[in-house]
Design a protein that fits this description.
This protein has 606 residues and is α/β, with parallel strands linked by helices. The protein is built from 21 helices and 12 strands. The protein has an 8-stranded parallel barrel with strand order 1-2-3-4-5-6-7-8, surrounded by 5 helices. It has a two-stranded antiparallel sheet with strand order 9-10. Strand 7, helix 11 and strand 8 form a beta-alpha-beta unit. The longest helix has 29 residues.
């Protein structure tokens, strides 16, 4: 019997609030793992009702009058997905191995390198019916569902209030309530923590036994940390290990060549970051393991009998099978994440028809890095979205900002006692009045107001597409869609089936459009050079010592990254000589651009 490995080498990361809200229900039965955002409990409750109605499940509403309703909504939705996917698997395993059946699709989607795929292909060649049935029975037993993973943005952790305006205990904050909903669910899967370190959240994990190993070292619920560099991984891994909590996966994400919020590094590029993980992986695992087991023993809990799995994966800007294979093989990775391209796959994600059509025919300039997020973090955006149309229309009507109903991103207390959102009409109106009353120059006032007017409502916009696609009426008639694909989507045009996208990932077909596409490392570098240029332009006057130090480090890291890529180019065994030469030419041109930018910076900063 072959030991069953994961069916696929890639996963589908979280996208927005609603784009992957029920992706496991669409792809898990084919062995594909995916990630759900669980912060938006109102959307989750609507989707729970929808899927109960469509799957003959009894739906009992969890209203806001129910104690701990946020966590309970999330728990019940995740349990529903678990039940429905298990039901799907039972049905799939009983299907005949014929063209068009889902069991056939399961094995056809698998990568050619999989030993299970080879067993399946061998079965197809058998003429002996008895032997064929034996192998088919073995194949049925090897079918595994993709993981139903969840995501919590650690810093999105609003404190909540009761009906009398009194602050609720800390465990009822948004992040902790979302986490508790997952922790109390029946799932055996992973939770992804993204967007930084939250002491309140990290200090709450060890209240739930599912995150600790049993006597055999089995973890029912695992922790995945999304990180941007090795130092962050080691630091956060040790913090959790001191509580007896093991990080089962470090998920490296490109700082800029990704969808959603873009958390830029100080010029550290993806290649050198992964190289550091590759060189220090054993050290990371050993240090964290020793600390974790000591903590478990101190808690009088079962320590791990041996090194538990610690995966290293990467996501952000991968676009070809050659790139995917190179990352897996050269950096000894355990998997890759493919996000934005799946927005063009209706079988996998929730994109309403109007937005899907626009993205299928979009141009490169339609994808841009914006200031839409009220968190003050650059946000990847789509110029043709109805969310952008609505934002511009509100400005034209002198009604900049959004009504704020859900308040998930309410953090500002500059003008109010209770926090409000910096994308809200209330905040933007008050801030514009403050700017206009200030002694700034007219030009600077206009610049500040223009920046402020770029804010958009993400709580509504990033979730409504799931409602529109499933004919569910959005609350307050707010139908404008905000969508957050990464810039890599510019190289994909059209609408694709799940099979077409998976075949592209594994090199069985090519669905890229005709736009010339540089290597993913070069694409990220281009984004960082542009980001560096913008930072210089914004800060060139009145630079502090700290700002000068940061910009110089950025400059040094970019040039160091280019040197690394130049030495790496010859390692691309599956690419043509012309491809490698063009990559070196692009690196040289970008190096010159950085040097020219730095020369002007040096003159000003002296």
């Amino acid at each position: 019997m072959i030991q069953t490995p994961p069916a696929h080498t890639f996963h589908i990361p979280v996208m927005g609030l609603g784009f992957t809200i029920d992706t496991p229900l669409k792809v898990a039965r084919f062995g594909i793992s995916s990630v759900i955002s669980i912060i938006e409990h109102e959307l989750i409750e609507k989707m729970r009702e929808f899927h109960c109605r469509h799957n003959a499940e009894v739906y009992e509403p969890i209203t806001e009058n129910v104690e701990d309703y946020r966590a309970k909504r999330i728990k019940e939705y995740l349990n529903l997905l678990d039940r429905l996917i298990n039901r799907q698997l039972v049905k799939l395993r009983l299907e005949p191995f014929i063209e068009g059946s889902e069991i056939t699709k399961y094995f056809e989607l698998m990568p050619e390198t999989s030993p299970i795929k080879q067993l399946y292909k061998g079965m197809l060649q058998l003429e002996d019916s008895s032997m064929k049935e034996q192998i088919q029975a073995q194949l049925r037993s090897l079918i595994v569902a993709g993981s139903i993973d969840v995501n919590v943005m650690a810093k999105v952790d609003r404190t909540n209030y009761d009906e009398n305006g009194e602050i609720l205990p800390k465990e009822f904050s948004d992040a902790l309530s979302s986490f508790r909903g997952y922790a109390q669910s029946n799932l055996a899967s992973s939770i992804v923590f993204s967007a930084g370190y939250n002491p309140r959240l990290y200090g709450y994990i060890d209240a739930f036994n599912d995150f600790f190993p049993d006597e055999k070292g089995f973890l029912k619920k695992k922790i995945i940390l999304k990180v941007s560099d090795f130092r962050s991984a080691l630091t956060q891994g040790k913090i959790l290990a001191k509580k007896g909590l093991w990080v089962s996966e470090f998920r490296i994400e490109s700082g800029l060549n990704c969808g959603g919020h873009a958390f830029a590094t100080d010029g550290l590029l993806l290649g050198p970051i992964m190289e550091e993980f590759k060189q220090n992986r054993a050290i990371l695992q050993k240090e964290v393991f020793d600390i974790c087991n000591q903590a478990l023993i101190a808690k009088e809990m079962s320590p791990f009998p041996s090194f538990p799995i610690m995966k290293i994966t990467v996501q952000g800007g991968i676009g070809t099978a050659n790139e995917d294979n190179f990352l897996l093989e050269h950096y000894d990775l355990d998997g890759t994440g493919w996000a934005s391209p799946f927005l063009l796959v209706p079988e996998a994600t929730n994109v309403d028809d109007a937005t899907l059509k626009k993205m299928a025919n979009a141009q490169k300039d339609d994808y841009f890095l914006s200031n839409a997020s009220p968190l003050g973090v650059p946000f990847n955006n789509f110029r043709l979205s109805t969310g952008e149309e609505q934002r511009l229309m509100r400005i034209k009507k002198n009604r900049a900002g959004s009504p704020c109903y859900k308040k998930f991103l309410s953090t500002n207390i500059e003008f109010t006692k209770e926090p409000i959102c910096e994308s809200s009409r209330e905040y933007i109106h008050a801030k514009i009045k403050q700017i206009e009353a200030s002694e700034m120059t007219a030009e600077y006032k206009a610049e500040k107001i223009n920046f402020l007017n770029q804010r958009d409502c993400l709580c509504e916009g990033l979730g409504v597409s799931a409602l529109l696609k499933n004919d569910i009426n959005p609350a307050h008639k707010l139908t404008a869609v905000t969508i957050c694909p990464g810039p890599n989507l510019a190289y994909f045009s059209g609408v694709f089936t799940l099979k077409q996208m998976v075949d592209h990932i594994y090199g069985r077909t090519n669905i890229l459009n005709s736009l010339k596409r540089p290597n993913m490392f070069v694409n990220e570098l281009v984004l960082y050079v542009e980001y560096y240029k913008n930072q210089l332009n914004k800060q060139v006057e009145n630079l502090s010592t700290a700002q000068i130090r940061t910009l110089k480090a950025f400059h040094t890291n970019l040039l160091s990254g280019i040197d690394y890529y130049k030495s790496l180019a010859s390692s691309f065994k599956n690419e043509t000589e012309r491809y490698i030469e063009e990559m070196k030419e692009e690196l040289n041109a970008l190096e010159t651009s950085i040097m020219n930018l730095s020369l002007s910076f040096e003159v000003v900063s002296k």
